[in-house]
Design a protein that fits this description.
Among the domains are: 139 residues, no CATH class; 64 residues; 81 residues. Helices cover 69% and strands 5% of the residues. The chain is built from 19 helices and 4 strands.
């Protein structure tokens, strides 16, 4: 169900109601009335928590929406990049603060308001304990809880692995402690979080090691390749760049067979690069099985290129695995188009238009102008007008010199930007590239 409250769009999923009923039964509720009351307590408590995040976003001028789902809720901002680390920490803390505030209100009612009805007394008591527990739990430094995000933003993206280590260790410790005291809800929540942190840590570490190995090879710190082998690999890479995967496969197989060195066994250092070339070439020919085999052999002897491993996962239909690999590669500092390109596409298919656009703007130097225009159209279809406008603005800045002699094209681009949500007329009319294009008056009036 969808409702609108305090100007926020709120979605309450069926999973949330199932969770509410489950907790009601676990709490000993038997009558329909007590189950309904427990459900309302959870609804109010989690909604207030998420409203804390949403109101913090609003204080920074950012729109957001709320979704209550199985075992909790989430607040989704329409903007990602403009948030500083300090603002992100404030937003993360705003949810628990809102929960503590509601717990304080419940405590004040119980302490100072003379309530005689036993059922009302129990209701206020439950409201207090639920908000106190939920707020304290969310402050644990474990992703994806608020405390984990506080650590993540405080340390910054370059120390993301440290955040994962903290999440994995603390999550494991709390899960074990919860099992000892018989709190299986805590076992599930923190155990699941710890497992996800360990998985992400492993993938991020693999990406970092792969990057280091690549850098070491580039610096020549490993045994140099024989000249004939180096030439063959260069020819294979060039064939891939020239969109000739068949030729690349033939050359790569020749290296494996030692053709260029008289049938001798190829150097160990050449094998990973050969398998990488074979993986990309088979993918280019749509041969998923052969590409999977090449990557499987590669990952048994080396840390394979995360972009290639993710591309094979995508070809096999495993978007979640591909996303984890690509996000880990990004966290490790891999800025290649083979990393951010597929990740943007995955985010768009997942309906995360704002994050896709934020990533596109962060990596705009590696995206062609035409691809940026296509991306803007795709973002606009997801109703992310703020981000669509920012992408069109980037395109316009990139092309404005070429378009200066063609006012109609500039007007058309600005019209699309305005339709996507650009409204800053002072900034537009202050742009020297638009001086003299009076037709813009019909698109975005001059500031008065």
């Amino acid at each position: 169900m969808h409702v609108r409250f305090l100007g926020f769009d709120i979605e309450i999923t069926m999973g949330f109601w199932l969770t509410a009923v489950m907790f009601s039964l676990m709490g000993g509720s038997q009558s329909p009335i007590s189950i309904v009351l427990w459900a309302l307590i959870l609804l109010v408590s989690i909604l207030i928590h998420e409203l804390g995040h949403a109101l913090a976003f609003r204080a920074f001028g950012i729109r957001s929406a709320i979704r209550l789902h199985f075992l909790g809720g989430a607040t989704f901002p329409s903007v990602v990049l403009p948030m500083t680390r300090v603002k992100n920490v404030i937003v993360s803390l705003a949810g628990p603060i809102a929960g503590f505030t509601l717990a304080g209100v419940a405590y004040a009612i119980a302490k100072f308001v003379p309530v005689q009805n036993p059922g009302m007394v129990q209701l206020v008591s439950n409201l207090y304990w639920v908000n106190l527990f939920w707020s304290v739990m969310n402050l644990a430094p474990v992703l994806p809880l608020d405390g984990g995000h506080v650590v993540e933003h405080a340390l910054g993206p370059k120390r993301y692995r440290i955040t994962l280590i903290i999440s994995a260790l603390v999550g494991t410790a709390i899960a074990i402690w919860s099992a000892v005291i018989g709190q299986f809800f805590g076992v599930y929540i923190f155990g699941s979080a710890a497992v996800q942190a360990f998985i992400a840590l492993r993938e991020t570490s693999a990406a970092v090691r792969a990057s280091r190995e690549t850098a070491e090879a580039a610096r020549g710190t490993t045994e140099p390749l024989q000249p004939a082998t180096a030439r063959a690999l260069a020819d294979a890479r060039r064939a891939l760049e020239d969109d000739d995967p068949t030729k690349a496969i033939e050359i790569a197989r020749g290296v494996l067979e030692g053709r260029e060195i008289g049938g001798a066994r190829p150097q160990a250092r050449a094998i990973p690069e050969v398998l990488t070339i074979l993986g990309w070439a088979h993918l280019a020919r749509g041969e998923t099985v052969q590409a999977t085999e090449a990557v499987s052999r590669l990952t048994r002897i080396a840390h394979g290129d995360p972009a290639l491993v993710a591309a094979v996962a995508l070809a096999r239909g495993d978007e979640d695995a591909a996303r984890r690999l690509l996000e880990a590669a990004r966290a490790a500092g891999d800025d290649r188009k083979e990393v951010f390109g597929p990740l943007i596409q995955i985010l768009l298919r997942k309906g995360e238009g704002a994050r896709a656009a934020a990533l596109a703007l962060d990596t705009a130097d590696g995206i062609s102008t035409e691809d940026m225009r296509i991306l803007a159209s795709m973002i606009a279809a997801s109703n992310e007008h703020h981000w669509t406008g920012r992408i069109y603005e980037t395109v316009f800045k990139r092309d404005r010199n070429a378009d200066a002699a063609d006012p109609s094209k500039a007007v058309d681009m600005m019209r699309r930007a305005v339709q996507a949500g650009v409204t800053d007329s002072p900034r537009v009319w202050a742009d020297e590239a638009l001086v003299g294009i009076d037709e813009l008056e019909h698109v975005l009036p001059r500031p008065t």
